[in-house]
């Protein structure tokens, strides 16, 4: 009897599931920590370096620029270095970037350090889901996407809480530097991972691939069958760029992914994630209250994401998106109106906070998790990596534009109009959902691909 067979079956399959969950969790957490951590620090950075609003926008946004670059090169990196080494590289850059942020002696250095951090996040947020899809047993793949989004929101919350705790002493260097600790944990976790069997087979290293699959799957028979399937798939290799040039239907699905991520970012969610304390200051709150209110934003974000996970498959993608965009439009409209009124009384102040929290909940229950799910569902197999890389890049580029323009918008057109602008965009997205977004719940990926390639309208790709 071989050693592989001697291991209890459920124990081995359980190990693969745990491995995948832990990685999804850690990658999501890193993503969230980085999104969240800057909001509490900007006030102190601005004071120490005597920076203008415009300069601080660039400190905030340099990370997103790095992430767009990271996501763009991650496909090539993970194909040449392998998934595991790309993740290790991401983790090392993450730890290094966080430490550099903590020690930065000039605004330029801080922007550079955040750029490095961004490259790390871009690489990890592309490679981790790819790795997961390749090692996780089929039955838990759906749960992975949800775990991932939940951990993003948990990372944001943790960053807000740590910012709140450190905010009393204004220790912005600690706020940014401390993220190196979970980064080191991520690095340790990644070092312990096996290489992806799919990548090993891609490189013709069948023996090593079989050893990994044997360790991860229920029984040697399942492992062998999966290896054969992968080899079969690899016969029609991924030529995303070539497919993009020659196939109009693929261009449509890439366009849809880019549109979905653009819509997600233009809801205005990251205006709140990056500048919440500033927004609360505009509502008349003092320093400590701003930080606590920001932490509540983080908590509502986590709780509402929980709710969404239960609804995504029951209600379907389109109804949830309609509702989400409508709720976001209405709540941002209300925030704008209340800010216009100047929130002179406590009651109006409370109403403004409540409206902002409704906006967060609206996002977290809809566009937050659903856009990531849809983006991985609508691409045909042969172009999936390329399609997802394009939509992920779009997420970061538009994310950057939002982060880099918010304070200028406040200065230029005023607070109320800025929120109304985002409210109007959310209304436009209700119409975009109606025109282009397919209902993919309950549809197999093969069916979606067949209908895409048959030239059916995008909104009819699913059911
Ligand atoms: C978005 C991030 C956002 C986060 C908030 C994610 O789905 O891509 O940009 O900060 O949700 O929870």
Overall pLDDT: 88
Helix fraction, binned, reads over 70%
Assign the structural class, choosing from mainly alpha, mainly beta, alpha/beta, alpha+beta, or little secondary structure.
mainly alpha
Give the name of the CATH architecture.
Up-down Bundle
Q: What order do the SSEs take from the amino end to the carboxyl end, as H and E?
A: HHHHHHHHHHHHHHHHHHHHH
Are any ligands bound, and if so which? beta-D-glucopyranose
Instruction: Please report the first level of CATH classification, the CATH class.
Output: Mainly Alpha
Sequence stretches where pLDDT stays below 50 over 5 or more residues: 1-10
Instruction: Give the strand content.
Output: under 5%
According to CATH, the homologous superfamily is MFS general substrate transporter like domains
Largest sheet: none
